[in-house]
């Protein structure tokens, strides 16, 4: 590793104790900024020593390599007796020892903490320790130091001196010299750096306040005495330290020769018979799998593609990886857990043969290099979706199969976003809890990454006041900083050798899980393979519904005209991937008639096609309103199935291959350049190569320019065709269930909550509109889950908020044994908690038994506490209670169940709304476009997609229907508060129609939420 030469005046220096902002809330600068600053100052090297962590090691390695600076890895610790030390890695043994030591210390404590004892250090080869006593108070060396010296030898120990212009330099230096003379251990200069530059001091103080959970004004001596904990120039260091202490840093750095480049990762071999190699067994499984997929004979094209894929997998050594994923999928299927691979893996015949994906290669256009290529040098990344409620079974199977030292979940670094930054900044600066809440309520998810003064003014704060201005500065400085380490949504890493020798493993917040310390995006450094075990709610829905029907996904008949007719009408509430406002509006326009239309439907409402201006041309060509044009035969071959418009990411890559002469690996390079467009604003060398290749085959520059513009759209988010095909399978399956078994489908949706786009109230309403009879919660007939019989759906106990499952199961068991079900019996005989029986009474669980809610609550209230005296229970006089008013029942239903089977809340407000000039939404279905309209509705959804350029979409419902409301960007700011916080909105606007699709263009929004009183409503808000 390169170092700068010494000079006579300022010999080179190595900082051996330095933390980045990945030592969460303890330091301010990124690893990259620290490395850059150290190089600017002429340091010969830099040690990155996060507290009990190696989280920044991969990023530090890359940054140091690019800067030509020697990197030393290590970690800083506070031992149980309060002593501090730094451990530096000298060689590969030391790296493994440090990673395992960190895992040991983290494993002893809760999430985010650690516990390390002196005895833990004794069996740690390949490490060098720097002790950091408080030299201003240091007495005699502790006895444990002599014992550590006997285990390690004095050559692996140093005493670190930190000097920061505190006025006690002589006292600290004297303490160091006394220990050096008494122990024979050499000393060295140490910065204990937590900043790249002095100007970061105020931010460091704020992070300290956040970490300690106290306002800055109360911290006192807990704050740094000055701003000297930054990387300082050698000239500054010369004024503080004796030359021998500075020179010793070079000697220590010279003894640390380890680099992450020397680590070698090896994937576990997977389940494989002894008589076969992994490659042979993979071939055997693939051939057998294809035989089952194609019982009438394997198509020649598929067989040839499989051979090519097996050859590439063998060349790259990824056979064991595919065996592992196959084993995980087979375990899930053996337990009846629905699963399906998606993403680029669906481009693979091999994954289809192994049962990992369900996309038939004969129904699509595969591009294997999208999944795996020689040039990319990146491991394959297979994503498999499992039922969201049963994925944990799969995760625990992997832990049990490979062991805790060989398997762990991947991590994800969470960063400050505007809302969390504002709240933590306000807390650190002494704002009250009420003020913190008010500040947070004024922010929207679309406000971007920078906080603006007008947002605080809207929350009732004066942006001109010094306190608020300081708050803005601090909060904006926090945005983007690392906040904590979390677990990735489902990525798992497996290793043949102990994984904890490569990267520390620590407990996750969820019991039974462990997580590696490296962020998921840093795994590629060592070529570490990751399997994404993801959770998908729709798979839970499908499994429940299919179990009720006694069939499987394979039993669903393909290409059912009734299913497509339903989708063409936009009746897709609850259907996977096509239930959003935009998809519901697109369905009547695209009019899907076959499976491939669903593939397009899934992919077309995405930022890639929208940003690339591809949606409207495709629809016009599909409707015959404009001719289909192909600039050349090669392009026609690629785009004919999408009418000359590139909709899928693979199509861009295929155009590059067919029309510009790219091979598969170069096309994948183009894909990666597309992914980097946001950072660089161009395609790098691929842009000119694309132009030259197109020009050589007779395409004009206009087409090349147009293609580059479309690629820019895909850079925002282009959907792979393979991914869309995987999702389209679930679209069709869920649509078939909705079409032919609406009660079963609705029950499965309710039982799988929370998930999807719609809340239970909208699911139940839709079911009733489709002819399903929905029966209420019943103490006599309900079980835990909602149940369907024919076209009847009975709400289950799960729908009652706060009711423990154990209580509901006790009631069901009691009922099956013939026990009495009146409220008094449940309390006195079954022993149900009075509060839970009251909860059931308020929800109307006895109404089918002839007991009104008030009467059943009265019975519960009459139950007396047990008494030790043998007194006969006194007879409670019967009371003639008035029935609960319908409006009250509605309010209680929404509070208890999140829905009501009685009149809609706006039914009770209709006379008042009529007086305000608001017509029922259903009347708009019979109205012509244009003209002023005024409607009112409960807000069920809010959306502001990035592709809408500031437009906000609201979905409103009343007792008659629902409608989508469009709020143009110019109208968003004037009505911002109503848009963000309104529950009942009155909207004045203009009706627009396009076939069956209708929208209201808002001109004015008024918040009438106060009319709802205590009615509990909520919306689902999406980007």
Write down the Rg.
Answer: 33 Å
Low-confidence stretches: 1-9
The N- and C-terminal alpha carbons lie at a distance of 46 Å
Beta-strand content estimate: 5-15%
What is the total tally of β strands?
23
Secondary structure class reads alpha/beta
Q: What is the mean predicted local confidence, pLDDT?
A: 88
* Largest pleated sheet: 7 strands, mixed
Number of discrete helical segments:
40
**Helical content band:** 40-55%
The gross shape turns out to be globular
Order of strands across the main sheet: 1-2-3-4-5-6-7
Notable features of this structure?
single chain; 1023 residues; alpha/beta; seven-stranded mixed sheet; 41% helix
Can you walk me through this structure?
The structure is a single chain. With 1023 residues, this protein is of the alpha/beta class. The chain is 41% helix and 14% strand. It contains 40 helices and 23 strands. Helix 18 (537-549) crosses helix 31 and helix 35 runs antiparallel to helix 36. The two termini are 46 Å apart.
Q: Helix and strand layout, with pairings?
A:
Layout: E1 14-15, H1 31-40, E2 45-51, H2 57-67, E3 70-78, E4 84-89, H3 92-107, E5 127-131, H4 143-152, E6 157-161, H5 169-183, E7 187-189, H6 201-212, H7 234-238, H8 243-255, H9 278-293, H10 300-316, H11 319-334, E8 339-342, H12 349-353, E9 382-387, H13 391-402, E10 407-415, H14 418-428, H15 433-441, H16 453-458, H17 466-478, E11 482-494, E12 505-507, E13 514-519, E14 530-536, H18 537-549, H19 561-568, H20 581-590, H21 595-604, H22 607-611, H23 615-622, H24 633-639, H25 649-660, H26 664-675, H27 677-680, H28 685-696, H29 701-717, H30 721-740, H31 742-751, H32 760-769, E15 773-775, E16 787-789, E17 792-794, H33 805-816, H34 823-828, H35 834-842, H36 853-862, H37 886-896, H38 905-915, E18 932-943, E19 952-957, E20 962-967, H39 969-972, H40 976-981, E21 984-994, E22 997-1007, E23 1020-1022
Parallel strand pairs: 1-2, 2-3, 5-6, 6-7, 9-14, 10-13, 15-17, 18-23, 20-22
Antiparallel strand pairs: 3-4, 4-5, 8-9, 10-11, 11-14, 12-13, 16-17, 18-19, 18-21, 19-20, 21-22
């Amino acid at each position: 590793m390169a170092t700068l030469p010494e000079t006579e005046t300022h010999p080179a220096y190595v900082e051996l104790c330095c933390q980045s902002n990945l030592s969460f809330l303890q330091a301010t600068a990124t690893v990259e900024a620290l490395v850059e600053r150290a190089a600017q100052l002429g340091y010969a090297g830099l040690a990155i020593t996060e507290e009990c962590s190696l989280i920044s090691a991969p990023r530090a390695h890359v940054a140091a390599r690019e800067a030509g600076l020697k990197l030393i890895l290590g970690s800083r610790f506070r031992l149980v007796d309060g002593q501090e030390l730094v451990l530096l890695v000298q060689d590969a043994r030391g790296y493994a020892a440090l990673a395992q030591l960190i895992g040991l210390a983290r494993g002893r404590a809760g999430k985010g903490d650690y516990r390390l004892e002196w005895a833990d250090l004794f069996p740690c080869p390949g490490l060098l320790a720097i002790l950091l006593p408080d030299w201003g108070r240091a007495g005699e060396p502790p006895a444990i130091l002599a014992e550590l010296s006997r285990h390690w030898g004095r050559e692996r120990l140093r005493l670190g001196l930190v000097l920061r212009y505190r006025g006690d330099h002589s006292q600290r230096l004297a303490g160091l010299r006394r220990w050096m003379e008494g122990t024979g251990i050499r000393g060295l200069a140490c910065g204990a750096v937590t900043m790249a530059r002095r100007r970061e001091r105020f931010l460091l103080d704020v992070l300290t306040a956040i970490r300690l959970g106290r306002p800055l004004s109360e911290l006192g001596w807990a704050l740094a005495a000055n701003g000297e904990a930054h990387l300082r120039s050698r000239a500054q260091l010369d004024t503080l330290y004796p030359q021998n202490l500075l020179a010793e840093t070079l000697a220590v750095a010279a003894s640390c020769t380890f680099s992450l480049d020397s680590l070698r990762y090896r994937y576990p071999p997977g389940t494989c018979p002894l008589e076969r190699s992994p490659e042979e067994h993979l071939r055997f499984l693939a051939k057998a799998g294809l035989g089952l997929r194609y019982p009438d004979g394997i198509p020649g094209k598929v067989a040839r593609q499989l051979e090519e894929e097996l050859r590439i997998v063998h060349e790259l050594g990824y056979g064991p990886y595919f065996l592992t994923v196959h084993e995980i999928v087979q375990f899930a299927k053996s337990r009846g857990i629905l699963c399906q691979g998606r993403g680029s893996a669906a481009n693979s015949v091999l994954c289809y043969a192994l049962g990992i994906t369900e996309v038939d290669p004969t129904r699509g256009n595969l591009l294997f290099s999208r999944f795996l290529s020689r040039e990319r040098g990146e491991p394959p990344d297979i994503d498999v979706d499992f039922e969201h409620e049963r994925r944990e079974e799969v995760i625990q199977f992997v832990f049990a199969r490979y062991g805790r030292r060989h398997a762990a979940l991947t991590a994800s670094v969470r960063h400050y976003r505007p809302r969390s930054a504002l709240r933590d900044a306000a807390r650190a600066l002494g704002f009250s809890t009420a003020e913190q809440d008010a500040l947070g309520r004024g922010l929207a998810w679309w406000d971007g990454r920078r906080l603006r003064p007008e947002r605080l003014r809207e929350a009732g704060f004066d942006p001109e006041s010094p306190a608020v201005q300081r708050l803005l500065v601090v909060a904006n400085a926090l945005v983007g900083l690392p906040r904590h380490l979390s677990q990735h949504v489902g990525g798992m890493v497996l290793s043949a050798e102990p994984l904890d020798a490569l990267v520390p493993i620590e407990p996750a917040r969820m019991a039974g899980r462990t997580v590696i310390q490296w962020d998921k995006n840093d795994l590629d450094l060592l070529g570490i393979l990751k399997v994404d075990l993801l959770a998908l709610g729709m798979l839970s829905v499908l499994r429940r519904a299919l179990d009720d029907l006694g069939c499987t996904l394979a039993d669903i008949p393909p290409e059912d005209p009734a299913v497509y007719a339903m989708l063409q009408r936009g009746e897709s509430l609850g259907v996977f991937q096509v239930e959003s406002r935009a998809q519901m509006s697109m369905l009547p326009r695209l009019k899907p008639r076959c499976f491939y239309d669903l593939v397009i439907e899934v992919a077309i409402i995405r930022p890639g096609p929208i940003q690339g201006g591809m949606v409207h041309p495709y629809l016009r060509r599909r409707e015959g309103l404009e001719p289909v044009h192909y600039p050349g035969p090669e392009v026609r071959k690629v785009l004919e199935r999408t009418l000359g418009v590139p909709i899928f990411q693979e199509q861009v890559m295929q155009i590059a291959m067919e029309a510009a002469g790219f091979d598969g690996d170069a096309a994948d390079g183009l894909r990666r350049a597309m992914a980097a467009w946001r950072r660089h604003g161009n395609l790098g060398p691929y842009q000119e190569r694309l132009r030259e290749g197109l020009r050589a085959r007779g395409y004009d520059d206009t087409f090349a320019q147009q293609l580059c513009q479309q690629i820019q759209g895909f850079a925002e988010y282009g959907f792979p065709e393979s991914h869309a095909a995987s999702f389209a399978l679930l679209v069709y399956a869920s649509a078939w269930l909705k079409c032919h078994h609406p009660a079963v489908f609705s029950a499965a949706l309710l039982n799988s909550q929370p998930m999807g786009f719609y809340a239970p109230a909208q699911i139940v309403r839709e079911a009733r509109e489709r002819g399903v009879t929905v029966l209420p919660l019943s103490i006599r007939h309900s079980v835990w889950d909602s149940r369907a019989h024919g076209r009847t759906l009975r709400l289950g106990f799960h729908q009652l908020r706060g009711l423990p499952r154990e209580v509901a199961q006790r009631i069901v068991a009691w009922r099956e044994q013939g026990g009495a079900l009146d409220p008094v019996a449940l309390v006195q005989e079954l022993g149900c908690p009075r509060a839970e029986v009251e909860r059931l009474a308020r929800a109307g669980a006895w109404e089918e038994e002839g007991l009104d809610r008030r009467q059943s609550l009265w019975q519960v209230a009459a139950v007396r506490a047990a008494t030790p005296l043998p007194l006969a229970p006194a007879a409670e006089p019967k009371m003639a209670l008035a029935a609960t008013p319908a409006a009250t029942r509605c309010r209680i239903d929404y509070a208890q169940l999140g829905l009501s089977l009685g009149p809609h809340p706006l039914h009770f407000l209709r006379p008042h709304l009529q007086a305000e000039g608001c017509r029922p939404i259903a009347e708009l279905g019979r109205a012509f476009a244009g003209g002023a309209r005024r409607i009112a509705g409960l807000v069920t959804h809010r959306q502001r997609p990035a592709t809408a350029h500031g437009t906000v979409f609201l979905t409103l419902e009343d007792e008659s229907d629902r409608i989508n409301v469009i709020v143009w960007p110019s109208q968003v700011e004037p009505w911002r508060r109503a848009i963000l916080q309104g529950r009942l909105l009155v909207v004045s606007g203009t009706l627009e129609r396009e076939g069956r699709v209708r929208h209201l263009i808002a001109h004015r929004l008024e918040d009438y939420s106060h009319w709802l009183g205590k009615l509990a409503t909520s919306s689902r808000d999406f980007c």
